[in-house]
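Entry type: protein chain
Record version: 2
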Amino acid sequence: MQMSVSIIIPFYNAANLLHLSINSLKNQTYKDFEVIMVNDGSIDNSCEIAKELVGNDSRFSIINQKNAGPGAARNAGIKVAKGHYIGFIDSDDYFHSDFIKLMVEKILHDNADIVICEIQKVDDNGKVIRHYPIAYDRPIGKMEAFADIMQSINISSMTQNKLFRKDLFHNVEFPVDIKVNEDSATVYRLILNADIVSFVNMPLFYYVQHTGSSMNSFNFSKLSDRFKVADMIKTYMLNNNLSEYMYLYNIYYLQNVALSGALQIARFSDEYNNDIEKLISNIDKNIFSIVNIIKLLKNAKNKAMALIALKISKRLFRFIALSLTRRK
């Protein structure tokens, strides 16, 4: 059976970066796919560069819209996608040339609704910074996958290392009112709509960590989005008979709101004391408890110890956070 795939690339002012994603798709060994590029109101010459890179390759199309953020751009691409499965990539990242081929082979072999590959984080020169392996060597069901993604064990909330069966998006859209972490607000719902989640135990997606990236900076809008996403997840779980799994939500909150937010402040804020106090004052105290933190020890000992340090001493936490940064 031939399986068609749609890949969606949202872009905004990415003229100098688009060659990475576009060329990696033009070089795919699997041929039955389309690429929907969504120009999210770029004010540079990104659109012209995209057209030049694509050339006469009819598999590529471009949608133009007013700037509305990555969530809205992805939603626009999903609406017109014709493939059986949908994937995503950002303009500055790229795929292995066998990405679609190996992912489709796994879909067909396992009758999978979602297939996930390993990730390699690379620098601007393609040098590997970190490899993110996947321990599963078998397909798993949605509740096992949901438990995993909520605890950040093997499955990341990234969309870019995954292919999703198109009908999983029924009644699921990316949020349009946040600028970061829109994947975290969406992927877990797609998993809960699935039956079978399968894996390719190879790094087929390359996540580029650029020098001077906005990820290596701090502002409170990023933290606000973390709180918003956490609230979305909590509301969804309470409204969809998932109350018995709220312990997983607590673990998600500790790792992705409390710890990740505190690490961002420790590494990049120019006003650490003020910003860390503001974060702690907004954290749900019922979740940020020693009892809940201890539950993290089983699968994430280092994270649990860092959270205990944050609870004991803001100065100690910053020392630990900066020490971890220097080791990377």
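Comment: The radius of gyration is 20 Å.
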